[in-house]
């Protein structure tokens, strides 16, 4: 695919960038000012590669008359204007499945970290504060906690399977109940009811117009002073200012957060809290998975160029 | 005709039970002689206990450095027929001497196992996925400045070699299998009821593991069993998790293996000389350090109260102990 002009929106992955450079005609969007770049190269761009934070919005799509395909280095494609792509006949691909395990692993790891205060203990020891044996505060057991999952898709199911090994009862909310598929999981028709019946609430659904701020103040208060929110979805799934206030007041017990509304900016107030665990969007952040994601992006571009069926099309 | 006197509570010797609800629950049921609030030296305290009109037949002791139940101790309180240890370890009780004298011993059984297993899994995820290190990065405000955090490594497919497949090791295996890990183990003998691959030595286990977990008890045989040789067999991509006892690992060798990059990381809840932690570890991003807190949740504390009282009630009413260590 040496003649395929690919616009990489951000240096998302060294291996991907290297392969795109080797196999395609690569343009790096960050190397020159946007307007200058578009004037010079807009007509040559047939493919755009972005990620969770850098997508092909309407303005960019309009500026690229030769655009044929958007291959996102992510599973969530809320930053890609899908309607516009459909209108223009532009294909869109993402990277599902290959990152499911990593995201689910992190979600459960964050839940244990929050409830058992592992990063907090690590800070305590590194600060030289451990002065005597028997110096610990009691945390609360993770095993057996009621886990509520918003969105029982690939990632939600993977979270459910993991927490079942800890004897956690699983409940979920999504648009439709699928009782025959999940006879062991309890369905709740609203997120508030799910939260009210959970100790740990995990956000695992896609971000779209109907799931923006799905975790509202009401949901967080239903989850309660002992409840823990785990967000491995997208920052905008949660009403972030309300969450910060609820955590500060004790109306929400704790949170494990991989995503934020305005990454890489994290609300200042969270940085001083002990009942939260904050990580910088590392849900799929392993060598193995990022390589698999990159190979999927490359595979989709290649299939497109060869007029073969796309590997993981969204549009 | 009996007058309605309150029942005479059996005398109980107590060492180092600090938690208030636990203390209160024991005081409700027993005439407690508490060493640490007596203010007396041990010899005087034991003599007074032995001279009590109803000398103590049972003792509740926390583990570690609370008390050493040895021959001298047992000589000082000849009325003692039962020792209950609230800790997981039994290294402070001379089981040989107790057996000789027909003193029964029980411990806390499996009350801590779930929480220790959960903590170990949490630490394993933390080390492989760099959770605590990434947290430090965020809290220092480095995300907007330095961009993406370095990558971790996937759990799925990792070979986890567990030293000691007892309660804790078994609970860990069940959890880790759900993350796609492959379980290997070493213990004194292979366990017929499990299908995990057995290794006769810790060295062999380490050479075919990506993560080495210390989940066994401390004994003469296991002291420093994780030594330089084992760490070299584990290799530069390997990580060590210790939720057993500090002295099971040669700590100096572990620190130098980490410092020299001969292993990839570690998650440690226990150390050779607690609360001292080797300072070299504080600057390492590939280690997670916790202060011997893996067992301690509100739930395990409540389970411990139940186990202690359950065993004491059994002893005082002549019924079989719930979680006996002696007689075997």
From TrEMBL, chain A:
One of its GO terms (cellular component) is cytosol. One of its GO terms (molecular function) is NAD binding. The keyword DNA-binding does not apply. Residues 6-314 form the D-isomer specific 2-hydroxyacid dehydrogenase catalytic domain. Residues 108-283 form the D-isomer specific 2-hydroxyacid dehydrogenase NAD-binding domain. InterPro entries: D-isomer_2-hydroxyacid_DH, D-isomer_2_OHA_DH_cat_dom, D-isomer_DH_NAD-bd, NAD(P)-bd_dom_sf. Keywords: NAD, NADP, Oxidoreductase. It holds the Pfam family 2-Hacid_dh_C. It comes from the Eukaryota. Belongs to the D-isomer specific 2-hydroxyacid dehydrogenase family. This is Hydroxyphenylpyruvate reductase. The lineage of its organism: Eukaryota, Viridiplantae, Streptophyta, Embryophyta, Tracheophyta.
Automatic annotation (TrEMBL), chain B:
It comes from the Eukaryota. The keyword NAD applies. One of its GO terms (cellular component) is cytosol. Residues 60-325 form the D-isomer specific 2-hydroxyacid dehydrogenase catalytic domain. Keywords: NAD, NADP, Oxidoreductase. Coiled coil: none annotated. It holds the Pfam family 2-Hacid_dh_C. One of its GO terms (molecular function) is NAD binding. CDD domains: HPPR. Residues 121-294 form the D-isomer specific 2-hydroxyacid dehydrogenase NAD-binding domain. PANTHER family: 2-HYDROXYACID DEHYDROGENASE-RELATED, OS04G0106400 PROTEIN. Belongs to the D-isomer specific 2-hydroxyacid dehydrogenase family. This is Hydroxyphenylpyruvate reductase. The lineage of its organism: Eukaryota, Viridiplantae, Streptophyta, Embryophyta, Tracheophyta.
